[in-house]
Design goal:
Mean pLDDT: 76
Low-confidence stretches: 283-352
Number of helices: 7
Strand content: 25-35%
Helix content: 10-25%
Length: 352
């Protein structure tokens, strides 16, 4: 079993790990994803990622013919079988577990030129030289402007702009008890994983109720009900590789202290694009009765409710309205836009 590295996503807490058990059948897609089974029920990889490790009893990996025999053709990429801890019963007990983690960005492999060195490198490479007198005049003006900025002390550390030291935490509180026949467990869990990219995190709040009733040798029934709320925040700062490519002699702010929408050479300002934010919320509820013995009866029911909300910047809201207005302008007269944009209009930036 191999957990594939993803250098693009890095420490993104919303990225589910790619696990390969029997190699890759395709470059991308579900054909490479193993089947996940928790207490006899097939679940998603995201569900497993949000589980509390303290509830797991055993993990079994199936990758041979036995997997296909039990789960059919969908198990061609392998099966991961997870069994949670059984109910113990006994006197009423209160259980608590918690963890706190610190994540820090590692930049020791980055050795970049400073502003003065980068400008001199571009001059020697001929980026400010042209045979056409008109373009050469413009290049000379651009070089003089950048050179004066460097002389004034412009030295932007772009690598530090989207990064942070991130604290993550997880807390679990439960009570359990019962007698020889009836056993129960009620638990509440809260967890928040923060990424080193600013604005990226994953918050989980769940409650779980487990109940089993057993008449030895005659009847056994168990129920596991879980209500989980997961809130995802993707970092508005995009890919870290974009920040590595930025020029250190660029100042992301203008003379008035406002973010510039674009930089020299018509490059986008990633700090300006970072004003876009996307928030996704998902509420998942599952309930199941996995085992009723001695009667040859198995009942299972699962249901899910999903909600999603998206927030965009005021500029993108105006652009969306204007785009819709222009599409319908040939059929009917248009009304005034609900907002006003001053200055040059930039295309909406892609939000990851």
């Amino acid at each position: 079993m191999v957990i594939a590295d993803d250098n693009l996503k890095g420490s993104d807490p919303n990225k589910v790990a790619d696990i390969n058990i029997r190699g890759r059948a395709t470059f991308e897609g579900q054909a490479n994803t193993p089947v996940y089974v928790v207490d006899g029920a097939q679940v998603t990889a995201e569900y497993v990622a949000d589980m509390d490790m303290n509830d797991i009893e055993t993990v079994t990996v199936l990758k041979d013919a036995s997997a296909s025999a039990l789960y059919g053709a969908k198990a061609s990429a392998g099966v991961i079988v997870i069994t949670t801890k059984t109910l113990k019963g006994g006197k009423l007990k209160l259980n608590y577990s918690g963890t706190v983690r610190l994540s820090t960005p590692d930049l020791h492999d980055y050795h970049l030129l400073n502003a003065r060195q980068k400008l001199e490198y571009e001059r020697l490479a001929g980026l400010f030289t042209d045979t056409d007198p008109t373009r050469q005049y413009q290049y000379d003006r651009d070089y003089a402007r950048i050179y004066n900025d460097v002389q004034r002390g412009v030295e932007t550390d772009w690598l530090s702009k989207p990064l942070r030291n991130a604290f993550s935490q997880s807390h679990s509180l439960s009570i359990d008890g019962g007698d020889e026949r009836a056993k129960y467990n009620l638990g509440v869990r809260y967890g928040k994983d923060s990424g080193v990219m600013k604005g990226s995190d994953r918050t989980r709040l769940s409650t779980n109720f487990r109940l089993s009733y057993n008449v030895s040798g005659k009847f056994f029934i168990s129920n596991n009900s879980t209500l989980t709320s997961v809130t995802n925040h993707e970092s508005p700062y995009g890919d870290f590789s974009d920040w590595v490519k930025m020029n250190p002699y660029e100042n992301p702010y203008d003379a008035d202290g406002q973010l510039r929408s674009s930089l020299y050479h018509d490059l986008a300002n990633p700090l300006y694009d970072a004003s876009l934010v996307v928030t996704t919320s998902r509420i998942t509820s599952t309930s199941s009765i996995p085992r009723v013995s001695n009667y040859g009866l198995v009942i299972r029911y699962d249901w899910m409710v999903t909600s999603q909300s998206t927030a965009v910047s005021k500029t993108d809201e105006c652009l969306l309205h204007l785009s819709h207005t222009m599409r319908r302008s040939q059929k009917q007269s248009t009304s005034e836009a609900p907002c006003r944009i001053t200055g040059p209009i930039q295309p909406p930036s892609k939000v990851r």
